[in-house]
Structures are given as C-alpha cells and as structure tokens.
Design brief:
single chain; about 425 residues; alpha/beta; FAD/NAD(P)-binding domain; seven-stranded mixed sheet; five-stranded parallel sheet; 23 strands; binds flavin-adenine dinucleotide
C-alpha cells in the first residue's frame, strides 16, 4: 500500500488549487492593498508574509468570511487586474507529500464539455491565482482579453499550463478512478484508505493518507434516464458537436444550460430539433431573460422570437421509452406523443459522487445549494474557516462540493488556501 500525506481526488480547478498550494506556492500580500474592514486590514498586515499561518477562525470569530479574505485580494475589482497591480503574490516553499488521482487531466470537466463551449463568465474568473490567465495568454502568444468569455480550447490548455508551470505534473495520476474511500483501521498508521482503478489497465491500487481532498466535481455521478431503451445506438448520453450526430431530426432531452447549448448548436447547424424538458416554459424563459449578457442566450431569445420552424419545444414533458428505429415515446401535458427521430442527445447533468463516502455512514450533513439558474446540488457542510468536513475529520471538499463557496470557480478557488493552510498548520509546518 502506498502512503501519501495528502491524496487529492479530482483534477478540476478545485483540486488543482489545493495541489498548487501544497506544492509550496504559498500566498503573500504585498503593496498597497486595503480591506474594507479595519480589523481585517490589521490582521492581513500582521500576516502578510504568510497569510496561511493565520488561523482563519480569528476572522470567522469576528464575523468575517475567511474565503473572502483571500478572494478580495485575488479579485479586488470587477475587471481583471493588470499583472503589475496584483497584491496577491506567491513565495515558493517546500512541498508536502501530495498525490492527485483523477479520471480527467488538469481542468476537470472542461476536458469533456462540448467542443465549442464557452464559459459563462470572464476568463479571469476561471483562473488559479497561482498562475494568472493573463500571464498564460501573454506567454503563449494568445491575443485574448481576460475580461472576455473563454473558449474551452483555451481553458483546458490553461489548466494544463498551470500544472506544468507550477510543477504539479509529476504528482498527478490521470485515468485513475477512485472507487472507494474508507477510514483506515487501527493496523494502518493513517486516516484514510483510498482505492483506485486504472481505467486503461484495469489494475487497482490501494493508498493510505492522512488528509483527503474530495474534489470530484458536480458531474462525477451522471444522472440516468429511467426510460427504457436509453442504451439504444441512436441515443447519446452527452453532447459534443453537431457533426458527431447523424441525420436531420434530433431530439434533445434536458433542460439545463448544457441541454440549451446542445439544442441551439444543433438548430444553428440546420437540424430539425425537438427539445423536451420537464420544466414549465416560465422557468426556461426566465433563464433566457436573466442570461441576456451571454451571447448564446441572446441567440436563444432571437430563435424564440423568430418565425423559425426547426425548434420545437416540449415543456412539462418526460420521455417514457426509446423504441427501435428512433421511435421515442414522450408524455406531454397534452397527453402522450410518439416521435420519430434520427438521433437523441441526452443532457440531464449529474451530481457529486457522494457514494464514494458511503463507508462513513449515511449521516453526512449536506447543504442544499441552489442558484437562480436552476442549478442545484448538495454540498458537504464544512467548517467555514478551514473547509474541513464537519462529519469526517481530515476530509476537505474542494471546488463545487464544499458548502459556502458559490457555484463558480471565482466563488470557490480561494478555498484552496483555507484547506492547504489548515493541513500545513496541522502538520506543524506553519
Ligand atoms: C457546461 C458547463 C459550463 C460551465 N461553465 C462555468 C463557468 O463559466 N464558470 C464557472 O465558474 N463554472 C462553470 N461551470 C461549472 C464547473 O463545474 C466549474 O467550472 C469547475 O469545473 C468545477 O471544478 P471542480 O474542480 O469542482 O470539478 P470538475 O471540474 O468537475 O473536476 C473534477 C474532476 O474530478 C474527476 N473525478 C470525478 N470522479 C472521480 C473519481 N471517482 N475518481 C477520480 N477522479 C474523479 C473528474 O476527472 C472530474 O473532471 C460549468 C460547468 C459545465 C458543465
């Protein structure tokens, strides 16, 4: 059994931020910065050479959110800061013994989004502060605006460059699926046992560790349609690009942003699209109206207000069966209907795979997080100063799975400093 002090599950932006900090890239505050609160300013000045050494309970106890302590320095203004105005800097110190196990490479789920996917927010909102995306653009000769949305063809290479620039690659094992996490028994001098499956060879490896970063992201357990026949060859369970789906008539099943993306791209590729979703039209129209700052939702408004004949929307509907030869049965508010299509794209999202933690019992404490855009998931409740699980000592949800982070990279990224800081203080390194 291999032992590591820290095992990080998941190579998305959540896991990568913790990895970079444990690799020794420790934040410091420098220059002319100002926190809105005088007492926070005083604490920041006292600890500016090593803010990780500050026990964030000191902030929490005074009514300040520790994650904001770092986020305010990373994003002090709305726009991306010019590189020479950053007051959040990094000092390279010794690494601690960490290992990352991840199915996808650096960038997490961005490796699998549709081929033309853009972000919902500006590029700099997606960055790890350890390696600003503006610097990546400059160093790779990309003429891009870090205040503009970013294409996944820039974003995935950005996360790969983070891993390279920050020296993380030797400790990242990709194609490794964690299949089980359990408490170590008394014979093992560690807290956790982690089992993983090498997806290419089928080999399993067992690790032990003292700290576990749980960063498997919001799609580690993909939702399944209960309708029979979902395994037929004309049904695809994820959307990539119009050219990947043959035929003229495509049925899109979903209702979230990913299904919206698929339905629109297929429509604009000239297909006849039927788009079925469980929600009612009011919810969909609200999302479209509230998202008019995004080009693809402007396009949705255009499609709906035009005389187009190639986008049929079935609200309040459920697919009940996929029959042979593209025949699909759907229950609608007006009664059952049968459609014949060439292809079906199912985009119904996923959830964090909390079953990996089943060995810790069924009583984990969750926080039901919702955003205004129909996105919802259960997050693990954590100590807001350290992001350590309140139920499992030594386990730290990172990224989307931790309560109190918001549902975006800008919202959760600086949680990595709370996590790494707590581990480093606990190990006696800070
Ligand atoms: C289409 C789409 C668009 C989005 N747009 C935005 C946006 O514009 N801005 C924004 O901030 N967020 C956006 N998001 C949210 C997205 O979740 C975050 O950007 C971010 O990727 C979440 O980071 P993460 O590290 O929590 O998880 P992920 O990026 O999901 O990374 C976790 C990784 O863990 C790995 N993993 C999962 N299970 C296991 C296992 N059992 N064993 C080993 N490894 C495992 C997988 O490789 C997975 O990729 C979007 C999401 C989607 C799906």
């Amino acid at each position: 059994m291999q032992h590591h002090s820290v095992i990080i599950t998941g190579g998305g932006p959540g896991g990568l931020g913790v990895a970079a900090t444990l690799e020794g890239w420790h934040p410091r505050f420098e220059g002319n910065y100002q926190f809105p609160s005088d007492e926070v300013q005083t604490l920041a000045r006292q600890h500016q050479e090593s803010p990780l050494a500050l026990d964030p309970h000191e902030l929490l106890g005074r009514g300040h959110r520790p994650i904001e302590f770092f986020r305010m320095r990373h994003h002090p203004i709305q726009d991306a800061l010019p590189l020479d105005e950053w007051t959040l800097k990094f000092t390279k110190r010794d690494r601690v013994d960490w290992l990352m196990l991840s199915t996808d490479g650096p960038g997490g789920l961005w490796n699998k989004v549709p081929r033309e996917q853009m972000t919902l927010g500006p590029a700099h909102w997606m960055e790890l502060s350890h390696y600003p995306i503006r610097r990546f653009y400059e160093e790779t000769g990309r003429k891009r605006d870090s205040n503009a949305l970013v294409h996944r063809n820039d974003l995935v290479p950005y996360y790969q460059a983070c891993a390279e620039e920050l020296g993380l690659n030797p400790y990242i094992r990709t194609g490794m699926k964690v299949t089980n996490i359990r408490p170590a028994d008394a014979k093992v001098n560690a807290r956790f046992i982690v089992e993983s499956l090498d997806e290419s060879t089928g080999d399993t490896t067992t690790y032990s560790c003292d700290y576990l970063i749980f960063g498997v992201g919001p799609r580690s357990a993909l939702r399944k349609l209960s309708a029979p026949g979902a395994d037929r060859d004309y049904v695809s369970l994820a959307y990539t690009h119009p050219t990947d789906y043959p035929g003229e008539r495509v049925l899109v099943v979903g209702g979230g942003r990913s299904a919206d993306w698929a339905a629109q791209e297929l429509h604009d590729d000239g297909r006849v699209v039927v788009y079925t979703m469980r929600q009612q039209p009011e919810a969909h129209l609200k999302l479209i109206n509230d998202s008019q700052h995004l080009p693809y939702y402007q396009r949705w408004a255009e499609i709906l207000s035009s005389d187009q004949e190639r986008m049929g929307l079935l609200y309040g509907s459920n697919v009940t069966a996929f029959e042979p030869d593209g025949v699909v049965a759907i229950r609608t508010a007006d009664g059952p209907i049968i459609l014949q299509v060439d292809h079906v794209v199912v985009e119904i999202g996923g959830d964090p795979d909390y079953e990996l933690l089943n060995a810790f019992g069924n009583d984990l404490t969750f926080h039901a997080k919702r955003d205004n855009f129909r996105f919802q998931l259960n997050q693990l409740v954590v100590d807001q100063a350290t992001f350590e699980s309140v139920d499992i000592s030594g386990l730290y949800p990172s990224g989307y799975t931790a309560q109190g982070t918001g549902l975006s990279v800008i919202g959760f990224h600086t949680g990595c400093f709370l996590i790494a800081g707590d581990i480093l203080r606990d190990m006696g390194i800070l």
